[in-house]
Specification:
Layout: E1 9-10, E2 16-17, H1 47-52, H2 56-69, E3 74-75, H3 77-85, H4 93-105, E4 110-113, E5 116-117, E6 128-130
Antiparallel strand pairs: 1-2, 3-6, 4-5, 4-6
Helix pairs in contact: 2-3, 2-4, 3-4
This protein binds zinc ion.
């Protein structure tokens, strides 16, 4: 979870707020001066994410990740995409990665590449998901 503490932000009134992540894609939300007044209410990183929101399928992907992690030390989001998506699994690959990032934001999982915990906002390429280690 160390990556979650790396930034804090100060709004126009001098109040400091912690970093937050997008409720849809799970990436860090970059603080903008235009949001100073209602930073606490900001939930999405972009208009695209606000429109997309979080669907029932997205929740099913989150649940699928947690279920698979009860049976394996780590999983590939592709496995969840295949399980939930069936024949349409390719369309589920990015949604599965979004679900994994939301679960990181919720403190439920961490994302690793090799054996290293990586920042889900910026990680590129193949990744795996596991329960947080103390
Ligand atoms: Zn987003």
């Amino acid at each position: 979870m160390a990556h979650r503490q790396r930034t804090a932000v100060r709004d126009g009134a001098g109040r400091v707020s912690g970093p937050k992540s997008c409720a849809s894609c799970g990436r860090d939300i970059q603080w903008r001066a235009a949001w100073a007044r209602d930073w606490d209410a900001v939930r999405f990183c972009s208009n695209a994410c606000r429109h997309r929101g979080v669907t029932a399928v997205d929740r099913a992907l989150e649940a699928g990740i947690l279920t698979m992690l009860s049976a394996a030390p780590s999983i590939d989001p592709l496995d969840v995409a295949q399980q939930i998506g069936g024949d349409e699994w390719r369309a589920m690959v990015e949604p599965a990665r979004r679900a994994a990032r939301r679960l990181v934001a919720a403190g439920e999982v961490e994302i690793i590449q090799g054996s290293r915990v990586v920042n889900p906002s910026t990680a590129k390429g193949p990744l795996r998901v596991r329960r947080p280690r103390a």
